[in-house]
Write a structure and sequence with these properties.
Belongs to the TRAFAC class TrmE-Era-EngA-EngB-Septin-like GTPase superfamily. Era GTPase family. It comes from Capnocytophaga granulosa. Keywords: Cell membrane, Cytoplasm, GTP-binding, Membrane, Nucleotide-binding, Ribosome biogenesis, RNA-binding, rRNA-binding. It is a peripheral membrane protein. The chain has 292 residues and is an alpha/beta fold. The chain has two domains: 164 residues, P-loop containing nucleotide triphosphate hydrolases (Rossmann fold); 105 residues, GMP Synthetase, Chain A, domain 3 (2-Layer Sandwich), CATH 3.30.300. 36% of the residues lie in helices and 24% in strands. It contains nine helices and nine strands. Strands 2-3-1-4-5-6 form a six-stranded mixed beta sheet, sandwiched between helices. Strand 5, helix 4 and strand 6 form a beta-alpha-beta unit. The longest helix is centred in the C-terminal third of the chain and has 18 residues. The chain is globular, with a radius of gyration of 20 Å. The chain binds guanosine-5'-diphosphate, potassium ion (K) and magnesium ion (MG). The site of magnesium ion has 6 residues, from helix 1.
Length: 292
């Protein structure tokens, strides 16, 4: 018998969805920072064995959209809600969810198994965890509740085994050696964007999109040329920084991670370009992979 299915992770911003995806897959597929809206896409992480294939999907945190990019991000969440074979709703310890009743009604009426994961218990204590288990069981009667630490890999293994039990019988959806649905350039873009999230303050990172123009690989080296797009001229100056120091730092940090990710020497060229209001432009968003 062969089992396979889609396990979709949804939840509020910053609860640890991307950290869990990476822990489950054992690769750094999804970028992680302490900032909300780090994850903008739906990213598949595929784990295969002899007689199973689990397709995990990471999604952006649930927010009220303020501009078209965020609307597209929430469409990814909606898709994840609808095509799941197993739904993971992730919360963090101490979180009291104030989302509307409608949301929980939808979760409780899901036709597939629902796992509620209370994450970050490494920074909590036994009594608080016990309380949280009871709180979420009441809120999501349909759910199986687990307390985990995605960061410290606590309870992730038992969770994975439970997922295998719940998985439907099905042939594999992807080749067994495939790790993700995204192309190499996507991971280049995301790595650069992560460094931008880490190095710049306030609104700047949210106005950035990265596009990789060249990705050319030889036996020894990968040559990459990527464009960092911003919405305004003033943001371009901020990204580049005094004498180009800020951009240089991003380049060094991104190259370091990319060499680890691809296991090869990387030559990385970064350029900054103004692309006015790309976040609100459907045509641009489609080009960057935000709409179907
Ligand atoms: P997402 O927005 O839900 O995808 O959350 P991320 O995976 O990007 O994580 C948000 C922040 O929470 C990052 O700073 C993570 O390092 C941190 N984090 C994730 N999981 C854990 C955990 O189990 N314990 C602790 N203490 N921090 C965590
Ligand atoms: K985050
Ligand atoms: Mg994320």
């Amino acid at each position: 018998m062969h089992k396979s299915g889609f396990v979709n992770i949804i939840g509020n911003p910053n609860v640890g969805k991307s950290t869990l995806l990476n822990a489950l897959v054992g690769e750094r597929l999804s970028i992680i920072t302490s900032k909300a809206q780090t994850t903008r896409h739906r990213i598949f992480g595929i784990v295969s064995g002899e007689d199973f294939q689990v397709i995990f999907s990471d999604t952006p945190g649930i927010i009220k959209p303020a501009y078209q990019l965020q609307t597209s991000m929430m469409d990814f969440v909606k898709d994840a809600f609808e095509d799941a074979d197993i739904l993971i709703y992730m919360v963090e310890i101490g979180e009291k969810d104030l989302k509307d009743e409608e949301f929980f009604k939808k979760i409780n009426q899901a036709k597939v198994p629902v796992l509620v994961l209370i994450n970050k218990i490494d920074r909590s204590d036994e009594a608080t965890v016990k309380e949280a288990l009871a709180y979420w069981q009441e809120k999501v009667p349909k759910g199986e509740i687990y307390a985990i630490s995605a960061l410290e890999n606590f309870n992730v293994e038992p969770l994975f085994h439970r997922i295998l039990e719940l998985l439907p019988e099905s042939p594999a959806f992807y080749p067994k050696d495939q790790l993700t649905d995204k192309p190499e350039r996507f991971f280049v873009n995301e790595t650069i964007r992560e460094k931008i999230l880490l190095n710049y303050k306030k609104e700047v990172p949210y106005s950035v999109e990265v596009e990789t123009e060249t990705f050319s690989e030889t036996e020894e080296i990968i040559r990459i040329r990527s464009i960092i797009m911003v919405e305004r001229e003033s943001q371009k100056g901020i990204i580049i920084g005094h004498r180009g120091e800020a951009l240089k730092k991003v380049g060094i940090q991104a190259r370091y991670d990319l060499e680890k990710f691809f296991g090869k020497q990387i030559h990385l060229e970064l350029y900054v370009k103004v692309n006015k209001n790309w976040r609100s432009d459907l045509k641009q968003l489609r080009r960057f992979g935000y709409t179907n």
